[in-house]
Prior knowledge:
4 helices
Amino acid sequence: MLVFFFLALSIGAIWALQPVINAGLARTTGPLMASTISFFIGSLLLIISVVIYRCFAKEPFNFAVLNQVNPIYYMGGAIGAAVVLGMTTIIPKLGAGGVLSSAITGQLIMAAVIDHYGLLGAPRIALDSMRFIGIIFLLIGVNLVIHR
């Protein structure tokens, strides 16, 4: 379990680089083009990964199951594009710490709502007073990070 914690911690550290790199690209190309380039490169790498996987896997991807997927689950790409564009645009205004602390707080608040109502098949976990106090502390923390 500890290895997964450190893996997630490392992913979070790498994630902190992405909006800063995209904002640097946007200084030359603009936020929309920078976000498009970022998504294009990511998509290209994923397509290459699928091709490599299909070449070496004993059980290749079953593309036939894609028509059985609830359409709402295809929105992940659209949400990802909006996140990349939004962060690329806001980094110059709030800085990396401000954007990431705000984004992470937004994620945790939305996660609490998703858990409370069991949205999208998530297990129901009530938004009790301790979780609510945690959200208040997150909001206070973000305010401290973005305060100038």
